[in-house]
Design goal:
Chain lengths: 193, 169
């Protein structure tokens, strides 16, 4: 249930000892955080655990949020560092090549069936699948820009890079997304590109 | 190919609102007069629309409850600024900078600035008297403390690893 309060007001209440108010922030941002984590980690089970960890870390460090940036920007910084730590720890092979291989195998096994399924898929699903094929860095920057509504300065702050570097990385990520879409969804893409 | 990329990049900047006033004016002019630019612009606009309209993924229904149960075990940590004393940070920084500057001054003082032969280094390391540094009691104590600290640190690292290993088993 939404209280209609702004993020900073909810945070003040939590800091004053009203722990239950934190649920409002969790409800507000769980979709964004989970999407971002899932696009980097690619496993639902791990993503749920990491997203939970992000909210716990954010709660514990809440006194350090000084309101200099949006709460979401601060929260996504925790998402970024937590995901990077997880990927380093697990040394997961989440490179896009793996996903490409899966798709290539699927193509060779039953291309007719796949074509049928693709026809039924909405274009939005196609974009989601193409993003899932990107490497974590590209998927992250695209999600931050388009879904998490962060501008380039905010993305730069989250990723601890320069705004210009963020801009270049966004351009590259979009170019790679286009390549994936053209390669794996050529029929659907014909109507766009 | 590069031209194509550049043209796309300019259009993306325009769509993202990152173009300068001049660029914006020139792109708007091109969009009115050049069909190729107009078509590309429409394409990119559609991609942007698709990227924005994709749904957010949702975690399990119990997600908020799980988080709230987890945070009930913790307290909010005090703000870092409350327990980190800036004076101590500055003090440590000043100590190391003074140390480095001291070494540099000493090093430069050892150089023979009138030395002409460029094939040899200005400081002859083989003639350097290292013994001068290590026959002082104070330096020896300092080195010993460092060695002991290093051993304690190594012991703690190994103990942690052993504990982790036993936990994993």
């Amino acid at each position: 249930m939404s209280t209609g309060l702004g993020d900073n007001e909810v945070i003040s209440r939590v800091l004053q000892g009203e722990q239950g108010a934190y649920a409002e922030l969790v409800n507000r941002y769980q979709g964004y955080v989970f999407t971002l984590v899932l696009r980097m980690i690619k496993s639902r089970e791990d993503a749920e655990e990491i997203a939970q960890d992000v909210f716990v870390k954010a709660y514990r460090a809440l006194a350090d949020f000084r309101g200099e940036s949006k709460f979401s920007t601060w929260l996504y910084t925790i998402v970024n560092t937590t995901c990077i730590t997880f990927l380093r720890k697990k040394k997961l092979e989440v490179h896009s090549l793996d996903n490409e291989k899966i798709f290539e195998v699927a193509d060779s096994k039953d291309s007719g069936f796949r074509a049928n399924i693709i026809e039924q898929k909405s274009r939005v699903n196609m974009v989601n699948e193409a993003i899932a094929m990107l490497n974590p860095d590209d998927a992250e920057i695209i999600t931050l820009f388009y879904k998490a509504e962060q501008n380039l300065e905010e993305i730069a702050r989250i990723l601890a890079i320069e705004a210009n570097t963020a801009k270049v990385r966004l351009h590259r990520a979009r170019a790679r997304l286009k390549e994936k879409m053209e390669k794996h969804f050529s029929e659907e893409v014909k109507n766009i590109y | 190919m590069n031209e194509q990329k550049n043209f796309e990049k300019q259009l993306w900047d325009y769509i993202d609102g990152l173009s300068s006033h001049e660029e914006k004016a020139s792109i708007e002019k091109l969009l009115q007069n050049n069909i190729e630019w107009k078509n590309k612009y429409d394409e990119l606009l559609e991609v942007q629309q698709l990227l924005r309209s994709s749904d957010l993924e949702q975690p399990s229904m119990r997600f908020t409850k799980n988080v709230m149960e987890e945070i009930a075990k913790f307290h909010i940590a005090p703000a870092t600024k409350n327990y980190i004393n800036n004076r101590i940070i500055w003090g440590i920084g000043t100590f190391f900078i003074t140390l480095i500057v001291g070494f540099l001054i000493y090093g430069f003082a050892q150089m023979d600035w009138n030395f002409q032969d460029t094939s040899k280094p200005m400081v002859d390391l083989s003639k350097f008297n290292y013994g001068r540094f290590f026959n002082n009691n104070l330096v020896n104590v300092f080195m010993m403390v460092n060695v002991v600290l290093g051993l304690v640190l190594l012991d703690r690292v190994l103990a942690n690893k052993r504990k982790k290993f036993q936990r994993d088993i």
